[in-house]
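ok trying this again, last paste got cut off
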Amino acid sequence: MNDSKDPCSACPLADRRDFLREAAGLAIGVLLGLGLSPARAAALPIRHGTGRRMPGGDDCAYPIPAGDGATIDKKHQVILVRFHDVAYAFALSCPHQNTALRWLPSAGRFQCPKHKSQYQPDGTFITGRATRNMDRLPIRSDGKQLYVDADHVFESDKDAAGWAAAKVPL
């Protein structure tokens, strides 16, 4: 029996270094369990660009990215992501309160600066005040370009099948 009055003295992680080592190991385990290597997710480069609005339609055309990364198109309010050889298009704003999302390279995720909702690179909700995944936009490819309909949105809680299908294998 421990006679110390400190309630933490019997804890196996009472030492701060042990706690930090265990916490880091847990975080890496979670990323690997989600299929994200910490190095690969954190290395996702961010670019800024603008899609070309197609004549007579709602689609914006984007070049197919050569590798994993994201393109932020502020003009059309689109985030175009290539991640693990799949292309996704997202609404730029957080589904919670429409604040523009940001990429946090050190954490390997998107995050809302307002209420800290967090999302994986494929738009899947991790934690925070939001109640659903990032909103996906319809996306298709002709093998040369990606076409995104920035005027229509798939909300994962209202159209799970549409949300899940809104991607293009590359």
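PB: full thing came through this time. The domain at 44-169 is CATH 2.102.10.10 (Rieske Iron-sulfur Protein).
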